[in-house]
Amino acid sequence: MIASVRGQVLALAPDAAVVDVGGVGYSVRATPGTLAGLAVGTESTLHTSLVVREDSLTLYGFADADERDLFELLQTASGVGPRLAQAALAVHPPNAVRRAIATGDSRTLTQIPGVGKKGAERLILELKDRIGPIADTGTAPTAREVRPQWREQVQQGLIALGWTQKDAASAITRLADTVGTAEGERPDVPSLLKQAIRMLGKTR
C-alpha cells in the first residue's frame, strides 16, 4: 500500500495532481479542497489510498490521514466505490459526513450525488458503529472545512461520477446564471450538483 507521497508538485488538473517522488511522477486524484492547498513547484505531502482494479491502479490523495481513513471506511459499505466515496468528500467536509452517519441524518447524505434514501440508510446502518469520533460541533469550521468555490466543487463531483471535463464545464456554464452573487452568499453545492446531473440527462 502507498500510504503517502511527498515531493514537488509538477502539475495540477481539476481532479488530480502530479507529484514528483524520486524522479517518478505520480498522478494522484483528489478533491478540490485538497488540490486548493497545492501549488505547482512547491513540495507537498499527500496521504494516499491505492485502489486496485483488474485493469487499473488509481492513487487517491488527501490533505490528512483522517480524510483518507474516512474515504476507505466509506468503501466498506455495500455499493460504495472510490468515486462515490470521493464525491462524498467533495460535497461535504469529513466531519459533516461522520456526523450525518453517527446521528442518522439521511437528508445530509442524500445530498451526495449517487446516494438515494435507501443508500443513505444503508450507510447509516453499516457504518454508524464504526464511524469514529465527531469533532465539537460548537466550534467554527476550520479553513479545511470551508468549501472551495462552487464551480470547482461541482466540476469535481461530476468528474468523480464519471462525466468528462468537457461535460462538466458545459453544465457549469449553464448553472452560472442561476447562482446568486450577493456578498456573503454561499451557493448550495449539493443542489447545484443535482441540477447539473439533470442537465446532463442522467440521474443517479
From TrEMBL:
GO terms for biological process: DNA recombination; DNA repair. Residues 149-204 are annotated as: Domain III. Homotetramer. Forms an RuvA(8)-RuvB(12)-Holliday junction (HJ) complex. HJ DNA is sandwiched between 2 RuvA tetramers; dsDNA enters through RuvA and exits via RuvB. An RuvB hexamer assembles on each DNA strand where it exits the tetramer. Each RuvB hexamer is contacted by two RuvA subunits (via domain III) on 2 adjacent RuvB subunits; this complex drives branch migration. In the full resolvosome a probable DNA-RuvA(4)-RuvB(12)-RuvC(2) complex forms which resolves the HJ. One of its GO terms (molecular function) is four-way junction helicase activity. It comes from Phytomonospora endophytica. It is found in: Cytoplasm. The gene is ruvA. GO terms for cellular component: cytoplasm; Holliday junction helicase complex; Holliday junction resolvase complex. Residues 72-91, 107-126 form the Helix-hairpin-helix DNA-binding motif class domain. Transmembrane segments: none annotated. Gene3D superfamilies: 5' to 3' exonuclease, C-terminal subdomain (1.10.150.20), DNA helicase RuvA subunit, C-terminal domain (1.10.8.10), Nucleic acid-binding proteins (2.40.50.140). This is Holliday junction branch migration complex subunit RuvA.
